Amino acid sequence: MSSRRSGAPRLTDVDDVSNLIMKLQALLPQLNQNNPTSVVTASSVMKEACSCIKRLQKEVDDLSETLSQLLDSVDITSVDAEFLRGILLQ
Fold first, then answer.
1. pLDDT value at residue 1
2. Which of 17, 32, 39, 53 has the fewest CB atoms inside 10 Å of its own CB, making it the most exposed?
3. Residue 1 exposure: Cα atoms within 13 Å on the Cβ side
4. Who's near 46: CB < 8 A, 6+ residues apart?
5. Torsion over CA: 70, 90, 24, 35 (sign)
6. What DSSP state is assigned to residue 14?
7. What gap in Å lies between CA 50 and CA 56, rounded to an integer?
8. What is the CB neighbour count within 10 angstroms for residue 28?
9. Residues 26, 35: contact at Cβ < 8 Å?
10. CB–CB of 71/84 below 8 Å?
């Protein structure tokens, strides 16, 4: 257990969170498209990050389904199929 008392977070914790939010915001350029000088809240950064992750997961699922359908339609040997699976799982 930490010996840290409840109350205000340590300054380094606040700084760490702020730095992580800024790094995350940099990965989400759609937050700054309208007005690059506007203030973006941590909450909106987190919401957009969650939304982006959901979109990416759906895209991965869709691409996986498409790939599966393509592999089913191609005449490949089981050795080739295992080789492709191995590559895709890396």
1. 45
2. 39
3. 3
4. 21, 24
5. negative
6. H
7. 10
8. 15
9. no
10. yes
Task: Grade residue 70 by pLDDT with cuts at 50, 70 and 90.
Answer: confident
The whole-angstrom separation of Cα 60 and Cα 1 is 39
For the chain, which residues make up each domain, given as ranges?
14-89
- The count of other CB atoms within 10 Å of the CB of residue 49 is 16
Q: Which amino acid is at 14?
A: V
pLDDT band at residue 10 using 50, 70 and 90 as cut-offs: confident
Q: In Å, how far are 11, 13, 14, 20, 46 from 8, measured between CA atoms?
A: 9, 10, 10, 19, 22
